[in-house]
């Protein structure tokens, strides 16, 4: 109950993406040079030459999903609400490289992962792709689904009430006033 009371009173948990005031970041390039510690600059713009994809994405997930998770997997349009996204925090596509996306499409096509359509499912219903450092030779592919997520209802599943990623690091408490414990079993 104490944790619930704290979270309800913490402004960082009110709105997952937009209510937390932005704090300017000042980078100290001399602290850990990025060329010597590339893992400290984990998020990167799309560079298809650094991606290593494995598998063919043909997992029969419908066999393993039950209850409220089965229908959205079979028919994702089921979740679309059609409400206005004005004010929603969504990714910017302003600096995306069309050349890199073409390379990514070719990479997906070689693995049998590419399907082409005449238009998005709904206007603006797209996903930005970027990558995260994995090793000096390759990166992981990440899809920024904030736009899709903002366009969909939440599932009534096990993670419905879980804190969203931007909320977690913004939680703070006066020093020596509260304790946070994670219990198992």
Tally of DSSP β-strands: 3
Number of helices: 4
For the largest beta sheet, what order do the strands appear in spatially? 1-2-3
The secondary-structure element order is HEHHEEH
How far is it from the N-terminal to the C-terminal residue, by CA?
19 Å
Shape: globular
Outline the structure in words.
- The mean pLDDT is 80.
- The protein has helices at residues 2-9, 70-74, 98-110, 146-150, and strands spanning 43-44, 128-133, 139-144.
- The protein is globular, with a radius of gyration of 20 Å.
- It has a 3-stranded antiparallel beta sheet with strand order 1-2-3, with no helix packed on it.
- Helix content is 17%, strand content 8%.
- The chain is α+β, with helices and mostly antiparallel strands.
- It contains 4 helices and 3 strands, in the order αβααββα.
- It starts with a helix and ends in a 35-residue tail after the last helix.
- The chain folds into 2 domains: 1-16 and 163-185, no CATH class; 31-161, no CATH class.
Keywords, please?
alpha+beta, 17% helix, 185 residues, 2 domains, three-stranded antiparallel β-sheet
Short description, anyone?
17% of the residues lie in helices and 8% in strands.
